[in-house]
Automatic annotation (TrEMBL):
It holds the Pfam family Aminotran_5. The keyword Protein biosynthesis does not apply. Residues 47-315 form the Aminotransferase class V domain. Keywords: Lyase, Pyridoxal phosphate. The keyword Lyase applies. InterPro entries: Aminotrans_V_dom, PyrdxlP-dep_Trfase, PyrdxlP-dep_Trfase_major, PyrdxlP-dep_Trfase_small. PANTHER family: BLR3095 PROTEIN (PTHR43586:SF15), CYSTEINE DESULFURASE (PTHR43586). One of its GO terms (molecular function) is lyase activity. This is Selenocysteine lyase/Cysteine desulfurase. It comes from the Bacteria. Signal peptide: none annotated.
């Protein structure tokens, strides 16, 4: 699929230079078409339409599992990351000690801090991995909960480091938020160090709002017991089996519109090619990092790291932010600067337009 076709799927790109996937992905033509058909089917089908939903959820779980390397019966569909993560932490014994990253995404830290766990912290800076290793050695936590990519400045944790950490501390449970990561590169959950991965799909997967997923390693079934969630009678046929582990994360009805949107968004990713998406994002991120570094717009912690995402926080104030916006460049004020993020539908021309408007 060439650049023109990427852009064609996302009509907003004709109006704006969109450097804001880290805040919200875009609605594609494919997802819009699915949503219109879905509501039409419901309109004319009523309960006949409802009969097909179990099949839809099964297809969605399979699509998520295939894309991220996880068995479909260990994929839970949740309305958003926070919902699933709060359920997960509710199922953990309060006596556990949890390692967090200071100033990580509030949805990660609040879910832990508000529940009375013993907590220790590691700092997010250029030495992120060393900070984590030291904190694990010193505090001996039971769980490490963290974002794979930091939302403020795009600092990305090294997956090889996580594998080594897991090798050294096999009992340490790794719970990751992949909301700023999933959809940016190939990822195999089963081969990773993670025990649980959750992600909202409205950012890099461009799946719209109200859909997220959680992936679990097999052994997590014995480790989680969300109290009062044995809703066996509410768990219909769309669960892998009645009263199942995954069912605990899916009480009640799921939304056919939103999870169908997720399935359609994954189909678009597969048609585009995850290899192609990863390559485009990595190439563009490397050029952006080089150009932004040369203009002294990035913090040293980011400049000095080998590994980085395609999210950057550049020096800038409200005035520059408004100037960019008036020139139809969409980004976000985050932390002490302006956050820009590059997805596969972006181009070097978008970066050049940004640089031209900064100077």
């Amino acid at each position: 699929m060439n650049m023109k076709n990427f852009k064609k799927q996302f009509p907003l790109l004709e109006q704006y230079t969109y450097l804001n996937t880290a805040a919200s992905g875009l609605l594609s033509d494919d997802v819009l078409e699915f949503r219109q058909d879905h509501d039409l089917d419901f309109l004319v089908g009523g309960s006949l339409f409802r009969e097909k939903r179990d099949e839809l959820f099964l297809k969605t779980r399979k699509a998520v599992g295939a894309l991220f390397g996880c068995a479909a019966n260990r994929v839970a569909l949740t309305p958003n990351f926070s919902y699933g993560f709060n359920l997960l932490m509710e199922g953990m014994e309060a006596s556990k000690k949890v390692l967090l990253l200071r100033n990580d995404y509030p949805s990660v830290n609040w879910a832990v801090e508000s529940r009375g766990f013993k907590i220790c912290y590691a700092e997010i800076d250029g030495n992120l991995e060393e900070n984590i290793a030291e904190a694990v050695e010193k505090h001996k936590p039971d769980i490490f909960a963290f974002s794979l990519v930091q939302y403020i400045n795009g600092i990305k944790i090294d997956p090889d480091f996580l594998l080594k950490l897991k090798e050294q501390y096999p009992e340490l449970l790794l719970f990751a938020d992949g909301t700023q990561y999933c959809g940016t590169e190939k990822f195999n959950f089963e081969a990773s160090a993670l025990d649980v991965l959750g992600a909202s799909a409205y950012k890099w997967l461009n799946a719209g709002y109200g859909n997220a997923f959680f992936l679990f390693k097999e052994h997590m079934q014995e480790k989680i017991a969300p109290k009062g969630l044995e809703l066996k009678d509410l768990q219909g046929k769309n669960k892998p089996h009645k009263g199942s582990f995954i069912g605990k994360f899916e009480p009640g009805h799921l939304d056919t519109l939103n999870f169908g949107s997720l399935k359609t968004a994954i189909d678009l990713i597969n048609n585009t090619g995850m290899d192609e998406i990863e390559l485009r994002i990595k190439d563009l991120a490397a050029v952006a990092k080089k150009e932004l570094s040369e203009l002294n717009l990035l913090e040293p912690a980011v400049v000095n790291r080998k590994l980085h995402s395609s999210i950057f926080n550049i020096k800038g104030d409200e005035k520059l932010f408004q100037k960019l916006r008036s020139n139809k460049i969409l980004c976000s004020m985050r932390g002490d600067g302006i956050r820009v993020s590059f997805n596969y539908f972006n181009s070097v021309a978008d970066l050049e337009k940004l640089l031209k408007n900064i100077n």
